Amino acid sequence: MAALLRFALTQRVFVLIAAAVLMFVGWRAWNEIPIDAFPDISPTQVKIVIKAPGMTTTEVEAQITRPIELELLGIPRQEMLRSTTKYAITSITLDFEQGTDIYWARQQVNERLSNVWAQLPSFISGGVAPMSTPLSEMFMFTVDNPSLTLQQRRDLLDWTIRPVLRAVPGVAELNSLGGYVKTFEITPDVSTLMQLGLSQDDLVSAINDAHQNVGLGRMNRGVDTLIVRTQGRFETLDDIKALAVPTPDGRSIRLSEVATVSIGSLTRYGAVTKNGEEAVQGLVIALKGSNTAQVVADVKTRLADLQPSLPEGTTINVFYDRAELIDTAVGTITEALIEAVVLVIVLLALFLGNVRAALTVSLILPLAALSTFILMHTFDLTANLMSLGGLVIAIGMLVDASVVVVENVATHQQRKAPLPFLHVIFRASKEVTAPVVAGTIIVVVVFSPLFTLSGLEGKLFAPVALTIVFAMVSALILSLTVTPVIASWLMAGTEAPMPKYMVWLQQVFLTSVRRVLATPGPAIAVALVALVAGGYLFVVIGKSFMPTMDEGDIIVQFEKSPGINLDASVAIDTQAEKHLLATVPEVLQVVARTGSDELGLDPMGLNETDVFLQLKPRDEWRQGSKAELIDDIRAALAGYTGLNQNFTQPIQMRVSEMLTGTSGDVSIKVFGDDVETLAGLTSDIQRLVTKVQGSSDVQAAMIEGGQYLNIKPKPAVAAQLGVSVRSLADQLIVQLEGREIGQISQGETFIPLRLSASAVQNQPLRLGSIEDVRHWPVLLPNQRVLPLSDVADIALQEGPLLIEREQSRRFAVVTSNVTGRDVVGFVNELQSQIQQQITLPNGYWIDFGGEFENQQRAMGNLLLVVPVALLLIFVILFTTFRSVWLSLLILANIPFALVGGIASLYVSGAYLSVPASVGFIALLGVAVLNGVVMVSFLEQLRLRIADLTERVEQGAVRRLRPVLMTATTAMFGLFPLAFATGPGAEIQQPLAIVVIGGLVTSTLTTLYLLPVFYRLLEKRRG
Amino acid sequence: MDKPALLVLTVPLDMKDDIVDVLLADQTLSGFTLRDVEGHSREHQHYDLIEQVQGHQHMVQVDILVDIDELPPLMERLRGIQKAQSLRYWVLPVLEQGRL
Amino acid sequence: MLNRLLGPLLVGMLLLHPHDVFSQTPTDVPLSALSSYTLTYVPAEAVAVKRLPATVGHITYRPGDAFEVTLPFAIQQFSPETLDGQWVEKGQTLAYLDGREVHHFFDEAASAESLFLLTKRHYERNRKDIADQVIKLPEWLAIAQAYEQAKLAYEHTRHAREWLSETDNGVALVADHSGYVEWLAGASMSTAGQPLLRIIPGQALRLEVAVSASQVPLITAFSLPDKQCVDPLTGIRPAQRDEQYWRTLWVDLASDCSLRPGQTVRVEPIASFSGWRVPGSALMTLDDQQWIAVLNNQTLELIPVDVRATDAQGVLIETTTPLGGRQVLNQSLSVVQGYLMGMGGE
Questions:
Q1: In the β-sheet with C195-200, what is the strand arrangement from edge to edge?
Q2: TM segments (chain A) (predicted)?
Q3: Residue A1 predicted with pLDDT over 90
């Protein structure tokens, strides 16, 4: 270390040039670092989505979900296998161990899936979902144009906008929702078929036979060659209408005379409404690991380029733009950063009484920050709330090293010894090198166990720890190289005497220290009382996992009666939307999506709606806080009975779903086999939960009680009349789901050609009741017609609507949010209630999950991690002081320091959450650092002052200024974070609160308690 | 220098910087020499663990060439250094001194 | 694969568990609970008929209802003047016939006639004599026999003769009745005595339609959706012919029908129905039962209904509660459903 110092002071120009280079490279790194709001907190996850149109839930589970799950269970390194099976769709998610390579994981899944694909029903579609995370939905817009129909707008989105946006680097997929997907549809008329003696298959054969262009080959014509083909492919609706269908009597008839040929649409599994009208929505999904800010910027550029070529009157109405959140969040942090820097400089100037000295110290801030960026870039860290927050936290601690150095330089300077200034600097710096290095290493060590955190908290706080480590290490090196160099120029010849008030303070302190050393009893007593009080508070304080970030946007989730159809669902949504717009002026626009999206990434049921509320800028609100606004919205929607409502936010909703498969603070999962039993248990539990204090938005997923109309051919009749399941299915499916028989390509678009009946509005026959189904005319092979009830048994059957599985076991879940109290307390009460009042049958068990699960795990991890950190610190202390007792002495001061942290947490009303715990860890480091600085100086004085008491007194007094400086710079450096209000600050706030409170007691401990105990210890050794 | 004498001062390692500072600041001295030595003294038992094991301590010896008349004031100044323990010293006569 | 069969109709929904709150009849809903929603009502429309899915029928006649023409001679040349299915009036020329036997027939007819007249005169003259016992029985017998034989032969030709007429263009076959012509396509004219054509009198033309045996008891009338007859066809008689799953019915055609024999038409069976029509959005399912919500002062009264059919205008329902003049909720019904299921309470 001394060598480094010497090198720096001898090669000052070199050091300056190196600093300049550092600044340049750092600036470059900052520009290249990917920026997002959050670090990538998604686990390595691979999702499979399979669509099986028309298949019931139990069939999908039996024929698709289970075989696939069975095949996937063999993949190594997996952590969790979950699936959700609904009508016509199943979604299977496989989570892998932390650190598993996503590409490898996808490949494994793909292999297994192709192994099992042949066993699955032939008409299914889907596969492995795009490589995205649940947080990848970063840009959402509706396509508006008053002069285009919903179908035309959807076409525009699918065929014009989507190909362009999919090509943007970093975009995994563009999901389309809403509107109608255009089809050409053919609706045969049964009685006409009967008249002509035709069957539906005859039509299909005729169509398929004609809809082909066949290349025949090449013909030699003289010396040339000519390519020959037959043409028959339909290109327009008229082509289809004009198709000649051969009839049994040897003649033919046009298709349009046997069937209605028209433009229809695919069966809708979902819809989008905007401000009370149906709309079409596009959703950009980013690739996992991409630079969100960059991708959003590119998407916007492409859209702007595309705009002129879109039909007139088209607007791309963006209602969610992750970049806004990023900017706000990053802006909040940056603001905090700048404020912190300013505060620190002011403080330094005050304490040192010397602006130039203050400047010398503060110059380390930008340099350390830039150096941190370089390291972040090298280690592929993204810039986000957490990592930048780590930087802000580090600000106060960054300066410690150079404060100590500069302060000592100033002190030495004051002595006005006729020594070369460079030597003075060297001396002063060398004197404090050991404690500074030890201190930095201690802080690094203190944060490194954070890297062992797993799960969500690991992903969130590892960047914090990493940036702090980078910042501290950079600061250390810089304060031992650049700071002395800068001091040599800036501080030369400016021996500022210690400011008068500082001198006065030192006097006051000396007196008090003397008194305390003389009668340590009261002080120790006070300390012990405080310790006990702190311990009590620690037990009593509420515990939670993570404070929720204010993302700015609000999502209200509606769940309506399970059997509702899409049109009815949308009708209710539009009412609620219009009402919201009319009564809550803070809402800028409302975009709601009901049901499933095209890709099936979020297969909500027809009764489930996510209502996205885009809000006006905060300064246009009437309310003061977000919580008040949410209350107003709740009030506005209070009259909307008959549906379940849940308030959440975009990222929060996805994170919840991603982590636990459900959204809600607490989820109670009941595992078992029989759906009916599960349903009964969940309804009982739901009632229980509602009664527990603090529960809100309690919901039990509706799994059971679905009814299906089951149609089964009567065996004797079927055999006699030549009716098969296939033939019945073929005829009836036309009326419901429809059946694809080909594709028409027009230019760049593909239009499905289907047998279906979506567009025939005024057909006299329609299926709208069970009676209709009973009377439905079935065309038999003998060209006669019988009602379906003559040919098949038609009956209602019960079956589940939704089957959820985890690790290949069925479960049902009750979710609840928690308001007004801490989650852990809530769960404890709930657990005991369930224990007392619910008896589980054999083979059934309950698991608690949700945010609560995370909190347990996080706390468990931290409790393991902290003792390890303490051990490491002990080792470092021992290496520095070579004395077990001194090391223990310093460690013993930690609890007193922590008391302040828990007190300030309690007073501020916050809970003990993961960020708060990280704050305690930081506090640990700071307390130890202060202790080290104090003790090392006391040890140094050992050679100069013989009398123990005097040594302790003098040492304490001499260290007053640096201790106060480091403490206050750290504290004030955190004030901006503690009081910041923008989105993103909520996560870091508890950390700041803890550290600030803890610094108060830590400083008192260092200045008073430590000398007392040191003296006691030395006396005993004496 | 009429009567050169060599003041040899044995100083614990930790005090090296302080002594050096004082000597540097003393304009009357023409210079000094430093030397790393290992030594043992029964009077000062503040050994760290290594020294306990080895049996001797790291120390620094300072050679200061000074006129015998200038010696007492120098000794006064050196006494004034804040220290917890005494510093061993001896003074040697110098037969000759100069520059080549 | 049975359940691949059809898209499930999610018609109903139970609230999770048998011993749940709503296994008894749902209660009425106060309007105040739905104050935030837009509620609109329509009156229930009384409906007396229900249409079943269309099928196909034939315009034809019952066996025996048409006049069949048979000529006792072979025809060598035949030139039809009327088309199959055409309406002809009595006396209209149907065709021209030629051939050796055709002309021979006229001679035959003439001689039969003269023979008849002769024997008749003889018979008449001798009738007095046998009464006076001037002649003996055997002689009388011979005279009577001759007379009867001649009469029969004459009658025999007269039937056919009535259908023929000698014209300047040849021997014409003329219609002895009015009606639709049905040429018997398989007629072999080179053989005497084969049925040549039938004349179907107007009122003999009927609709023949086969319907499922299970539906027969329901049907009260038929309508032709393609509007060949405006009035529904109500005179329905079953046919003798029975097959296992079908019954054939004969339906009288209404007077305004413009139909021809041999036509196949689409027919819609009409069932009698005593119920109401409400919009699709007025119907909900709860507890395995369909309901509508009817306005009753400040509450919505829930009325159980049975759904019978759906058409382009709405849903046909039957219920024991009279709905005349009542207002039926047709907007926001699904939240009533959710409300009754207990959704939205916290």
A1: C67-70, C195-200, C179-183, C87-88
A2: 12-30, 329-352, 359-379, 385-411, 432-452, 464-492, 516-539, 862-881, 888-912, 918-938, 959-979, 991-1014
A3: no
Could you tell me which of A66, A177, A202 has the C-alpha nearest to residue A121? A66
Q: For chain A, list the contacting chains (3+ Cβ pairs, <8 Å).
A: B, C
Domain extent for C328:
2-39+279-340
Using DSSP, state whether B11 is helix, strand or coil.
Answer: strand
pLDDT of amino acid A296 = 93
Same domain? C154 vs C214? no
Any domain includes C345: no
Instruction: Print the domain residue range for A931.
Output: 499-540+883-1022
Q: Nearest by CB to A946, which of B48, B49, B85?
A: B85
Q: What's the CA gap between A540 and A529, in Å, rounded? A: 16
> How many domains are there within chain A?
2
The answer to whether the CB atoms of B21 and A942 lie below 8 A apart is no
Helix (H, G, I), strand (E, B) or coil at A527: helix
Q: Which amino acid is at A176?
A: S
Check CB contact under 8 Å for A427 and B21.
Answer: yes
In a domain, A485, yes or no: yes
Is B14's CB within 8 Å of A940's CB? yes
Partner A contacted by B86 (CB < 8 A) = no
Could you give the angle at which helices A322-352 and A292-306 cross, rounded to 10 degrees?
130
| Helix residue ranges per DSSP H, A74-129 | 102-117
Does residue A137 fall inside a structural domain? no
Please give the Cα distance from A886 to A935 (Å, whole number).
8
Does the domain made of B4-93 have the CATH classification 3.30.70.120?
Answer: yes
Q: Is the same domain home to C173 and C71?
A: yes
* Among candidate residues C187, C200, C177, C201, the one with its CA nearest the CA of residue C78: C187
Q: Which helix (H) or strand (E) holds A602?
A: none
Do C24 and C290 contact (CB within 8 A), yes or no?
Answer: no
What are chain B's partners, defined as 3 or more CB pairs within 8 angstroms?
A
**pTM passes above 0.80:** no
Look at residue A545 in the predicted model and tell me its pLDDT.
Answer: 72
Domain final position from C272, C306, C322:
C272
- A-side interface with B, Cβ within 8 Å? 417-420, 423, 427, 430-431, 882, 940-946, 951
Our CA-based measurement puts residue C176 at a distance from the nearest CA of chain A, in whole angstroms, of: 34
Domain contains A956: yes
DSSP class of residue A63 equals: I
Per-residue pLDDT averaged across A40-65, rounded? 88
CA pair distance C57, C206, nearest whole angstrom? 10
Q: Which residues pair with A278 in a beta bridge?
A: A273
Residue A748, number of CB atoms within 10 A of its CB: 8
In a shared domain, residues A359 and A491? yes
Is the domain of A1021 the same as that of A896? Answer: yes
Taking alpha carbons only, the member of A592, A720, A568, A717 closest to residue A645 is: A592
Q: Are A667 and A660 in contact (CB under 8 A)?
A: yes
- In this structure, how many other beta carbons lie within 10 angstroms of the beta carbon of residue A847? 13
Neighbours of chain C (3+ CB pairs under 8 A): A
Q: Are A345 and A356 in contact (CB under 8 A)?
A: no
Q: Which of C200, C230, C251 is the last residue of a domain?
A: C200
Mutate: best of C4, C289, C316, partner A, most A CBs <10 A: C4
Closest CA to A676 of A838, A798, A842, A809: A798
Pair A504, A382 in one domain: no
Residue with tokens 């991690």: A865
Whether C208 and C250 have beta carbons less than 8 Å apart is answered as: yes
**B contact test, residue of A432, A943, A949, A958 with most B CBs within 10 A:** A943
Residue A18 has pLDDT above 90, yes or no: yes
Q: Which of helix, strand or coil describes residue C296?
A: strand
pLDDT-based confidence at residue C4 (cuts at 50, 70, 90): very low
Residue A534 lies in a domain: yes
Counting residues of chain A whose pLDDT is more than 90, the rounded percentage is 21
Say whether both A1006 and A930 belong to one domain: yes
